[in-house]
Write a structure and sequence with these properties.
The chain is an all-alpha fold. The chain contains three helices and no strands.
Length: about 110
């Protein structure tokens, strides 16, 4: 009985370790691909029209600032609606993407 229990414990440990290693590799590859795509989008946008690129970056910055302001200020009665809900969602998505890139893309050799 003890040998079977020990073998099952070793099997569970190895399965979990290999699964985590594979997940880590997949997340690193996704982060590097996302970083590469962002760099390509910035390059193509700048080569197409620098003024439009700066205007888009400014608009995105204003959107993120508004979403951050709405996220971290004191809650107002009722739900967020319209523009506030949209900017908070964009801010949250950008924050999660930034965290993902910070945690995973900095660990790969693509930089």
């Amino acid at each position: 009985m003890g040998v079977r229990r020990a073998a099952k414990g070793v099997d569970d440990f190895l399965t979990e370790t290999v699964g985590e290693a594979i997940a880590e590799v997949i997340l690193n590859l996704l982060a590097c691909a996302l970083l590469g795509c962002l760099a390509l989008i910035a390059y193509l946008s700048w080569s197409y029209n620098p003024r439009l690129t700066l205007a888009g970056v400014g608009l995105l910055s204003l959107t993120l600032a508004h979403g951050g302001w709405k996220s971290f200020r004191a809650p107002v009665k009722g739900r967020r609606r319209g523009l506030a809900a949209l900017t908070v969602a964009i801010f949250t998505l950008a924050a999660m993407t930034s965290l993902f890139l910070l945690l995973y893309a900095t660990g790969c050799d693509c930089l």
